Structure formats: C-alpha cells, structure tokens
Amino acid sequence: MVAWLAVALVKPFRALRYDAERAGRLDDLVAPPHDVISPEMRDRLLAASPHNAVRLVRPDDPHEAARTLSAWRDQGILVREDEPGVWLLADEFVGPDGVARTRRGLVARVRLEPYSTGRVLPHERTFTKAKDVRLELLRATRTKLSPIFLLHEGEPVEAPSTQPDLEATLEGATSRMWRLTDADAIGSELARVRGPFFIADGHHRYETALRFHEEDRTEQTGHVLAVLVSRNDPGLVILPTHRLSRVAPRGLDGSRRVGIPEALEQLHRVPRDRAAFVLVRPEGATVVESERANLDTALVDALQLEGVTYTASAHEAEKAVASGTAAAAFLVRPPTIEQVETFARAGERMPPKSTYFYPKLTCGLLFSPFDE
Prior knowledge:
Layout: H1 2-9, E1 10-11, E2 16-18, H2 20-23, H3 39-48, H4 54-57, H5 62-74, E3 78-80, E4 86-94, E5 100-111, E6 120-121, H6 128-141, E7 143-144, E8 148-152, E9 166-170, E10 173-180, H7 183-190, E11 197-201, H8 203-216, E12 223-230, E13 238-239, E14 242-245, H9 260-269, E15 275-281, E16 284-290, H10 296-301, E17 309-311, H11 314-323, E18 328-331, H12 337-345, E19 356-357, E20 368-369
Helix pairs in contact: 5-6, 6-8
C-alpha cells in the first residue's frame, strides 16, 4: 500500500519558474497564497515588481492573469524545465514564540483523489464563493499557480548541504529549494512518503482543482501541485485563528473578568478534550468553557456571530476591540496535529479557518501548467 501510494499518487513535474536574469530578484517576485493577501499587502507586492506572482494568484480578473502568464512565458520571464523532477524545500522561520525552526517538504504533483477514496483527507469545511473564484482562475490559466500543503505519515525529508537552486525570503520566512532529476534520488525521496495524505492548507484549492478536473475530463488536469510534509517534521507549527465580531454576543457566562494575559493562561490550562475560548470586550476578558465540544473554534462558531473576521494575533484582536473596530474578540487555542488527523480520519470537518499552519507556503517559486 505504501509503495503504491508513492508511485501512483506522487509524480515529478516540469516546473515553470522565473528566469532570474530577466525577472529580477526572487524576493521581489514571490507572494503569499490568495487567502491571506490583504488589499494593502497586494499593493506592496504590485509595487515590488511588475512581475510579482500576485498578478497571477490574486488578479483583478482571471482572464487578465491568463494573458499575463502567457506574456511572461513569451518574454522569457518564466521558463519551463526540460525534464521532470521533484524539489526539496526547506522553509526557515522564527515562530511567534521566538524559536527558530525549519520545516522541510517535498514538492511534486499529486494525483487528485475524491475524499471518498480515503487517500487524501480534509479536516476543514470550505466556502463555496471562495471556490467559485478559484475555479474561474483555473479555467483561464490552466496552470497550478499555488501549491497545496499536504501532511503524510512518513519520515521528514533532509535538506542537502549544497547551495540551493532557488532561494527567496517573504514576510520573514526564507524558502530554499533543491531540484532532483535523477531517478534514484527521486525514488529515495518518494520512499519516505506514506499515505494517507491530510490537507493541512489549501482545501479550497484542492476542491476547486477536483471540480475542474471533473468538468475538463482530461488526464492533464488530474494532478495538483503540492508540498508534502511529514506529520513528524519538527518544524510544523499551527497558529490559532481568533475570531473578531462587529456585534458583541449576549448571555455568555464565564469566569470573572481579568486581564488578557491572565485569561490566556487560564485558557491554556483547560484540558484539550474540552472546548474553551477567551471572550475579549472593552471592559475586560473572561474565559468561557463547554463540555459539549472539544474544539475551540466550533464552540465560537456555534454562537452564529455577525460580521466575523479572523486573525492569528491575539495582540491584533485586542487592539481591534480597544479601538472599536470590533465589538468583541474570541481568542482560541490552535488545534493539535492529533486533532487534525482525528477529524480527518473520522470523515468530520472542523469549521473554516480552524487551522493556520505557519508560515504559509510561498507562491511564485514554482508553477505547474496542466500539460504534463
């Protein structure tokens, strides 16, 4: 079963990537995934370079992205590898706790599988509108522009000690990549990969790609671009996704009102089989617990809040309440890897925006057209 997964699901690909001599510094060309690009960040990325990948992953119009992609290929801004390969990726970063870490992965194309096969498993619910937007972009560009983040059961890859083929820094995280084309070297790395695969990040992209493949009905659209990371990799970090609401809820009973640092300490002492959150209002913070749920985000989302926005920063959430931008904030704990897998294996879904694997994968390092 393990060998079958490595051979049948994971394949090398001929990457489409920037030509440094024509495109410029890779630092100026890369971008975060679509879902975390704010209007302000998009403006910064657009100003960084006329060839920044944000023009492809977060365009004003999908057909404009297709025209831009075609023009960049014609001009040699983007070049195609002659032979297929896989890539080793090392993301080096400092987490919110101040600890330096390295997350390692294998970049390849992975065959699209319906969730019903049990070979690729989700853990979060998705938004239909977000998938509709991505579908139009896939139809227009016929290119895998952003990788899916998948967890697997095998051992972590090892980053070579040689100079990387590609290197870029974005938002404080440095990505280094090494290209492998030798069949034996590829086989050795694929031997580490064991299924099933769990979607860590990219549920909308994966489900959109599956829908596109079902309507296109060609072998060319049967794979996604993915970064495969071992669930045992020491660099895996999940941040909380706090909720902000423009309307304060009524009737919530919790512990006495305290300062936010003390409330967060209380929250982290609550057993993980019991859901809880810190409710932040202008008059103070309080801890709310429930024995009827075991996931913090599920407990918050059951309140059916109005005007909800999200942030991974408790400090930003506190500022929003203090400034009046939000009427209340709901600070939660990040799910554990074990919780993610438990939901996925049980065929259950966490609420949207329950996990934030940090840092997000960088877009623009490699693209993968649907023409292998």
